[in-house]
Amino acid sequence: MSTLAVPSFYLYGEPHRAVADGFIHVEHLDDRSRPSEWTIQPHAHADLVQMFLITSGGGAMQAEDVAMHFDAPALLLVPAGVIHGFHWTTESSGSVLTLARTYFENLAARHPDVEPVFDRPLAVTPDTAAIARLSDGMATLRQEVAWSTKGHYAAVEAALLAMLVVSLRVLPASDTGSALDRGQYASLVARFRARIEDRFRLRESIATHACDLGTSETSLRMACARIAGRSPAAMLDQRAILEARRALLYSHLSVAEIGYALGFTDPAYFTRFFTRHSGKSPTRYRQQRDTKRDARIDGSIQE
After folding, report:
1. What three-state secondary structure class fits 36?
2. Is residue 260 domain-shared with residue 191, that is, in the same domain?
3. Beta-ladder partners of 28
4. Measured distance CA(14)–CA(210) in Å, rounded
5. Which label site among 31, 101, 160, 248 has the fewest CB atoms less than 10 Å from its CB?
6. Tens digits of residue pLDDT in 136-189
């Protein structure tokens, strides 16, 4: 059960509900941002990935505990499940593509090259040609999702793939890897990530994870190193730290209660674990974020 005071929406402001596998939605940025006075409060979409194409204005995206400032033109990428919010400069404009996580995973299974696009939240600055292609893709999708005629599904998928390829090519080099490696190992790492998401609070051993995934510890380590760039243990620890940071930011639970919720039976060990990975104690982390989180976003935006 979640202990966080962060809403999980279908689309922003809409109650959470099951997402159809083929769900796709395109809207103008100001459809939701203008009525919200250009501030979108922290929230999450459990089963949706999002792509924001910002063509004028700018602002800041808060993704988990990281603030990313940007000016147009910009491309913002938000994976499923990430807590995120926005402070837009007044009259910013652009388009927002929202896609079912399962739809993207289906595309990535058939076209492994595009799998890195939603690996992590990012704000990047594409060149003029990339912005033009992404804008054309948004326009095509906006038209295609509004009607159903011959070739509709093919047109939607073609436009999506073209946009994903453009997005892939503007990612930092460190976010992309060998297509051969991804084709060989991505499926195993995807299943491991899903298992982590379901069971990270249990603090199970790598041997247990590997056994239940039907592979060896060696194969799991090799796949994680090539796809995720870290060991299985590091991926487990990273997920626990992420949840701990979320709880410190968005809940009123004590440090000990957060540790217990994450499967740590010893509060002192949890404090040492968090400090080792974050460079500061949980108490210090919470104090700093309470005072700096909003100021770091608001202070750079002059309307």
Report:
1. coil
2. no
3. 95
4. 38
5. 31
6. 999 999 999 888 788 888 999 999 999 999 999 999 876 655 544 565 678 888
Please state the separation of Cα 1 from the chain's center in Å: 21
Q: How is residue 157 written in tokens?
A: 């998928």
The domain of 223 spans 177-229
* 56 located within any domain: yes
Dihedral of the CA atoms 93, 94, 95, 101 (nearest 10)?
-100
For tokens 């007044």, the residue is 90
Residue 17 lies in a domain: no
Same domain, 160 and 243: no
Gap between the Cα atoms of 107 and 114, Å rounded? 8
Distance in angstroms (rounded) separating the CA atoms of residues 59 and 259:
34
Tokens of 135: 């804008």
Q: First and final CA of the chain: distance in angstroms?
A: 39
Contacts of 34 (CB under 8 A, 6+ apart): none
